[in-house]
Amino acid sequence: MFKTICTLLLTAVLAMEACAGPFTVLRRGVGNNGGSGYSVDTSSAQSVAYYLASTQRVGHYGGNYAFEGVGMGGSAQAAINSCCKPRFGGQPREVGVAQSATGMFYACCRW
């Protein structure tokens, strides 16, 4: 029984951490350049979406709101639908979508 409970807890923790999808997940603070030599503009969801598309990576960069979800997909709507969503639900306050050079769409939603 103890082993089952530990396994469930570990699975839940890993599921929360993997919220951004099966691709590279980057966690950086606002303005952090991650060693890239320039800062990521996190002033709007659209600017984060442009950065995600330019780097072709999905990652959380933070912003003005309490929760940020990011995702990618084959269309703009698929990218928005794949964004992490907060437990409290509701509609996002801000949505940004950008298309990468490979044709994939990257989205950032903020609640």
Task: Explain the layout of strands and helices.
Layout: H1 2-17, E1 25-27, H2 45-55, E2 58-60, E3 68-73, H3 76-81, E4 94-99, E5 105-110
Parallel strand pairs: 1-2
Antiparallel strand pairs: 3-5, 4-5
What does this entry look like structurally?
Strand 1, helix 2 (45-55) and strand 2 form a beta-alpha-beta unit. The protein has helices at residues 2-17, 45-55, 76-81; strands at residues 25-27, 58-60, 68-73, 94-99, 105-110. It is built from three helices and five strands. It starts with a helix and ends with a strand. Helix content is 30%, strand content 22%. The protein is globular and about 50 Å long. With 111 residues, the chain is of the alpha+beta class. The protein has one domain (2-110).
How would you state the average pLDDT, rounded? 75
| Uncertain stretches | 12-35
- Distance N terminus to C terminus? 38 Å
**Strand residue content:** 15-25%
Q: Helix content range of the residues, please?
A: 25-40%
Largest sheet descriptor: 3 strands, antiparallel
Shape: globular
| N-to-C series of helices and strands | HEHEEHEE
Count of DSSP H/I helices:
3
Nearest-angstrom radius of gyration?
15 Å
- By DSSP, the count of extended strands is 5
Descriptive keywords:
111 residues; single chain; globular; 5 strands; alpha+beta; 30% helix; 3 helices
Offer a concise description of the structure:
The chain is of the alpha+beta class and 111 residues long. It is built from 3 helices and 5 strands. It has one domain.
